[in-house]
Design goal:
Cu-oxidase_2nd; 6-stranded mixed beta sheet; repeat; 4 helices; copper; globular; mainly beta; Cupredoxin; metal-binding; 32 strands; about 575 residues
Length: about 575
């Protein structure tokens, strides 16, 4: 009880301080279609305020962000503020049919929330279908006025948004995949700040370029906004020092390569300490599964001031299947214990969960033609429950108004059947590979601490799955390959300075253990951030109950979209 009262008092003081001391940062987002030229052809894409990527939002810890979204596109839309805690503002989180119904074409909605106890690089993106391919932008949170970074102030900050491009309408591409029951078409290119770079056709003049001053240090705020691919990122002849991930400071870590999954952010310092000249930055896929993928490379150019070089130096890039390099990067990063916004690992665990993640099959509907294995549809699940969104009411409206029939509260704490999860021989085991569709949540008591073992499975394709949790950061206690060993693997837990994230790449054919405290009432989505897997059902929802006043889910805003 004493621990609960202390944590509650600290949270209340932090929230009250933020609301009292911050500024109001207001933006208008006009969502509409824009015709752009990429890869030799004109393409109509959905964007915000006529730009791709969309506008960067800059605020400080403690500020209140107000964003008026006007949907002038032909598609339903919502905006998710990826990584924001949304303390007592869950209605602003944005996942369609979880916290709100979509903003219909011709309609509007205002997102309003306080930024509390956060600083670093986050981002915003559409959370309906594949629209986030082009509807996204940076959300940069600086320390409160008078406070500084826990590293030397950089000469300049540079957002680097890594994206993915299709020669086609992404909504149509996704719908075609759903209709046929197979994976949608792979992308045609990757991009840096919306530009594919000079390795692609007709793209010589569509290469991102930035000029640097010799001897100066720059902060690159790297965001992976790609839909379906993890990426390696390198800069020729330059090391990078990782200082933050997912808006959580890290112990400085020097590396020549960054590995970043969809949804993740990584802040690095780079010093222009090489010979005056020009150098390529490049991003290429990390693909851990034996499946078809976009095996191309995007690149931009870093030019030193007064450089006359017309032939930039190209970095040596890892092979797409270089799991050892990816694992080394992902496991060598530690949190900056005692630094700004540091939260110690909660030691008393109230809820233990073992959650399998992977690709499955769904029986082909009657009178339909499906092109997946055994003429069925591809599907995906957590604990063999393939998540299905409601369509006539958001889950949080059902929670608030106590409406039955929208979801059930029986998401399992472990899979119904134990098996050798990472044995490749189970890939097409028809007794295991089918997963029923359901809309199930796991109910959590307010302020309970949850530990989850995320276990990859070998169904159909063994791959790394980036899992994103809305509304909370979590500590990454350990990760490894094979089946999680409940006897020996807890001995590997880092309880001193683990990395803090909101999105974790669960190792290919392996596992990761995360821990978080459910200190905010509402409905919180946990899902794979590979968009090809989300509509297949690789997701679930946490229902966090109300706590003592004021930790109670507030009524929905008057302008909340209705289904």
């Amino acid at each position: 009880m004493a621990r609960f009262a202390f944590v509650l008092a600290c949270a209340l003081a932090l929230l009250a301080s933020s609301v009292a001391s911050g500024a109001i940062v207001e933006h208008s987002f006009n969502v509409n279609n824009l015709t752009v030229t990429r890869l030799c052809k004109e393409q109509s894409i959905t964007v915000v305020n006529g730009s791709y990527p969309g506008p960067a939002i800059r605020a400080r810890d403690g500020d209140t962000l107000v964003v008026h979204v006007f949907n002038q596109s032909p598609y339903n839309i919502t905006i998710h503020w990826h990584g924001i805690f949304q303390l007592l503002s869950a209605w602003a989180d944005g996942p369609v049919y979880v916290t709100q119904c979509p903003i219909l074409p011709g309609h509007k909605y205002t997102y309003r929330f306080n930024i509390t106890g956060q600083e670093g690089t986050l981002w915003w993106h559409a959370h309906v279908s594949w629209l986030r391919a082009t509807v996204h932008g940076a959300l940069i949170i600086n320390p409160k006025a008078g406070l500084s970074f826990p590293f030397p102030k950089p000469y300049k900050e540079i957002p680097i948004i890594l994206g993915e491009w299709w020669n086609g309408n992404v909504v149509d591409i996704e719908n075609e995949g759903i209709a046929t029951g197979i994976a949608p078409n792979i992308s045609d290119a990757y991009s840096i700040n919306g530009l594919p770079g000079d390795l692609y056709d007709c793209s010589q003049n569509q290469t991102y370029q930035v000029q640097v001053v010799k001897g100066k240090t720059y902060l690159l705020r790297i965001i992976n906004a790609a839909l379906n691919n993890q990426l390696f990122y390198k800069i020729a002849n330059h090391n990078m020092t990782v200082v933050a991930i997912d808006a959580a400071y890290t112990t400085p870590y020097v590396t020549d390569v960054v590995v970043i999954a969809p949804g993740q952010t990584t802040d690095v310092l780079i010093t222009a300490n090489q010979q005056t000249g020009s150098y390529y930055m490049a991003a290429t896929p990390y693909m851990s599964a034996n499946i078809n993928f976009d095996n191309t490379t995007t690149r931009g150019i870093i030019s030193y001031e007064n450089s006359s070089s017309s032939s930039p130096i190209m970095p040596a890039l890892p092979n797409p299947g270089d799991t050892p390099t990816a694992h080394k990067f992902n496991t060598n990063i530690t949190g900056l214990a005692g630094g700004p916004q540091w939260v110690p690992v909660p030691t008393n665990v109230d809820e233990h969960m073992f959650v399998t993640v992977g690709v499955n099959l769904e029986l082909c509907p009657v009178n339909a033609t499906c092109q997946g294995p055994f003429n069925n549809r591809l599907s995906a699940s957590m604990n063999n429950e393939s998540f299905q969104l409601p369509t006539n009411l958001s889950m949080m409206q059902a929670q608030f108004y106590n409406v039955s029939g929208i979801y059930t509260t029986d998401f399992p704490d472990q899979p119904a059947v134990e098996f050798d999860y990472t044995d490749s021989n189970i890939s097409l085991d028809l007794s295991l590979v089918y997963a029923p569709k359901s809309t199930k949540v796991k109910t959590l008591k307010f302020n309970s601490t949850v530990e989850i073992v995320l276990q990859n499975t070998a169904f159909l394709a063994i791959e790394n799955h980036p899992i994103h949790l809305h509304g909370f950061n979590f500590h990454v206690l350990a990760q490894g390959f094979g089946n999680y060993d409940p006897i020996n693997d807890p001995q590997k837990f880092n309880l001193v300075n683990p990395q803090i994230r909101n999105t974790i790449g669960v190792p290919v054919g392996g596992w990761a253990v995360i821990r978080f405290t459910a200190n905010n009432p509402g409905m919180w989505f946990m899902h794979c951030h590979l968009d090809v897997h989300l509509p297949w059902g690789l997701a679930m929802v946490f229902e966090v109950e109300n706590g003592p006043t004021p930790w109670v889910l507030p009524p929905p805003p008057a302008d909340l979209p209705q289904c």
